[in-house]
Structure prediction request, 88 residues.
Amino acid sequence: SLHLFYQRFIDAFYIWLKHNNDNQHHQFCKTMDEFGSLRWEMDPLATTVNFLDLTISIHNGKINTRTYQKAVNLYLYIPPLSAHPPGM
Prediction:
């Protein structure tokens, strides 16, 4: 198998490839676009990816994670210590 790890959430996914070979990456992207009617946006090969609310990276064979926040995050939520009535 070409991929080492695959993670999907609704319409977003990422795959860690066993080899960082541009030709294999190109072939994988081509194969995905030929499958069904969906068209995929593929990023170039990298050791770091932002997926949902995490930045996931591999350095020296170790997986590292940290929280990720999009630049357009408006923080439209009610803080738990606000004076709003419960259920809002």
Observations:
- The radius of gyration is 18 Å.
